[in-house]
Amino acid sequence: MNRNKIINEFKDAIRSENLKVTAQRLHILQNLMDNPNHRECEEIFQDLLQKGTIVSRATIYRTLDLAVKHGFARKMDIGEGKARYENRINETHHDHMVCTQCGKITEFVNNDIERIQREICSAKNYQLIKHSHQLFVICNECQSN
Ligand SMILES: [Zn+2]
Ligand SMILES: [Zn+2]
């Protein structure tokens, strides 16, 4: 999707929440768009800081929540009260494996799992809207440490 179009849609989303479109909020969205990783708010804060954008953590949290609510980002709860954010612009569906030791996140897609989930729902005549599937693991690096 076209970058300017996404930014314009995000501006609409901000306005629809009766908030002001600010350069900082747009920087947060752009930072999210340019990074394929699953990051904590703090990492996004540090990355913005490094690039010369000073935004309060509170603003980042609020803006990320807005991005999640309006479908620009996905929030993953990875346990222990921690959340990670990834952009979901042009995303293809995937699930996650989370290392409980180092926090590394690995994406995966398994067509059998996808199919079985649909079958479970259709057996009950339910319509599957979305799913979130997380495997908590100890990654190979952490196993060898
Ligand atoms: Zn690990
Ligand atoms: Zn992901």
How would you describe this structure to a colleague?
- With 145 residues, the chain is an alpha+beta fold.
- It has two domains: 3-87, Winged helix-like DNA-binding domain superfamily/Winged helix DNA-binding domain (Arc Repressor Mutant, subunit A), CATH 1.10.10.10; 95-144, Ferric-uptake regulator, C-terminal dimerisarion domain (Dna Ligase, domain 1).
- It contains six helices and five strands.
- The protein has helices spanning 3-16, 23-33, 41-50, 57-69, 111-123, 140-144; strands spanning 73-77, 83-87, 95-99, 105-108, 134-137.
- Strands 4-3-5 form a three-stranded mixed beta sheet, with no helix packed on it. Strands 1-2 form a two-stranded antiparallel ribbon.
- Strand 3 (95-99) and strand 4 (105-108) form a beta hairpin.
- Helix 3 (41-50) packs across helix 4.
- It is globular, with a radius of gyration of 17 Å.
- The mean pLDDT is 92.
- Bound molecules: zinc ion (ZN) (2 copies).
- One zinc ion is lined by residues 99, 101-102, 104, 139, 141-142.
What do we call the CATH homologous superfamily of the largest domain? Answer: Winged helix-like DNA-binding domain superfamily/Winged helix DNA-binding domain
What series of H and E elements makes up the topology?
HHHHEEEEHEH
Q: Name the CATH class of the largest domain.
A: Mainly Alpha
Largest sheet geometry: 3 strands, mixed
What is the number of independent domains? 2
Strand order in the largest sheet:
4-3-5
What's the CATH architecture name of the largest domain? Orthogonal Bundle
